[in-house]
C-alpha cells in the first residue's frame, strides 16, 4: 500500500512479537474459537510460545513470527520456516492466522505481501510457499491476490479434525517481484 491508500493507521504493517502479544498468539494457536475452522489442530503446550519468545524473540535463521498490525491494533500473526527443497536448497513456507474480527477485510492479503517482501529483502532464498486446505476458499483468494501462483493439489497432505485433508500449494519466486521498484509480487490472472 502507498500513501494514497490512507495514513499509517489505515495500513497493515508487520512488527516483531512483544511480550504483550503472547496472549493473542496463544489464542490464535490454542483456542478453537479464535483459530478458525481451518487452523484448529487440537490443544498443545500452552507455555511453548512464551518459552520460544524468551529464547529467540520468535526470530531465528530458520524461521520466525511477526505480528500483523493496523496502526497500533494487532490483527494476527504471520510465520515462516525454512523447508528443504533439495539436498542443497531450501524455500520459505509461510502461514497466517488473523483474529476473528480481522478476517474478511483484506488484511491477510497485505500481510502476506509484506511477508514475501520482507523475506526476499532479508534472506537469499528464492521461493516462498504456502498451502491451505482445498475447502479454504478465502485463503486461496487471499494468496492469489497477494501474488502467489497456484501450483496444484497435495492429496492427503494435512491431518486435522480426525481426518486427512487435501491442500492446495501456492508459491512466489524472487524473479516474480514487480519490476516497478515496489517489490510487490505480481498478481497473476
Written description of the protein model:
This protein has helices at residues 22-30, 32-35, 48-56, 107-122, 137-145, and strands at 12-16, 59-60, 63-70, 73-86, 89-98, 127-133, 149-160, 163-173. With 189 residues, the protein is α+β, with helices and mostly antiparallel strands. A hairpin with a 2-residue loop joins strand 7 and strand 8 (163-173). 25% of the residues lie in helices and 37% in strands. Strands 1, 2, 3, 4, 5, 6, 7 and 8 form an eight-stranded mixed beta sheet that branches. 28% of the residues are buried. It has a single domain (3-176), classed as Aminopeptidase (3-Layer(aba) Sandwich), CATH 3.40.630.30. This is GNAT family protein. InterPro entries: Acyl_CoA_acyltransferase, GNAT_dom, Ribosomal_N-acetyltransferase. Pfam families: Acetyltransf_3. Residues 12-166 form the N-acetyltransferase domain.
Amino acid at each position: 500500500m502507498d500513501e494514497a491508500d490512507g495514513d499509517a493507521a489505515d495500513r497493515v504493517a508487520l512488527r516483531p512479537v512483544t511480550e504483550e502479544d503472547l496472549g493473542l498468539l496463544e489464542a490464535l494457536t490454542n483456542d478453537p474459537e479464535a483459530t478458525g475452522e481451518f487452523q484448529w489442530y487440537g490443544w498443545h503446550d500452552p507455555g511453548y510460545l512464551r518459552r520460544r519468545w524468551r529464547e529467540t524473540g520468535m526470530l531465528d535463521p530458520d524461521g520466525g513470527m511477526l505480528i500483523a498490525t493496523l496502526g497500533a491494533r494487532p490483527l494476527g500473526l504471520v510465520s515462516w520456516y525454512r523447508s528443504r527443497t533439495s539436498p542443497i536448497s531450501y524455500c520459505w513456507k509461510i502461514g497466517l492466522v488473523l483474529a476473528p474480527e480481522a478476517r474478511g477485510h483484506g488484511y491477510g492479503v497485505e500481510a502476506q505481501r509484506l511477508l514475501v517482501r520482507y523475506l526476499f529483502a532479508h534472506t537469499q532464498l528464492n521461493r516462498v510457499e504456502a498451502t491451505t486446505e482445498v475447502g479454504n476458499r478465502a485463503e486461496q483468494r487471499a494468496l492469489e491476490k497477494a501474488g502467489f501462483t497456484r501450483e496444484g493439489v497435495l492429496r492427503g497432505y494435512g491431518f486435522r479434525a480426525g481426518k486427512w485433508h487435501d491442500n492446495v500449494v501456492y508459491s512466489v519466486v524472487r524473479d516474480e517481484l514487480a519490476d516497478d521498484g515496489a517489490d510487490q509480487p505480481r498478481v497473476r490472472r
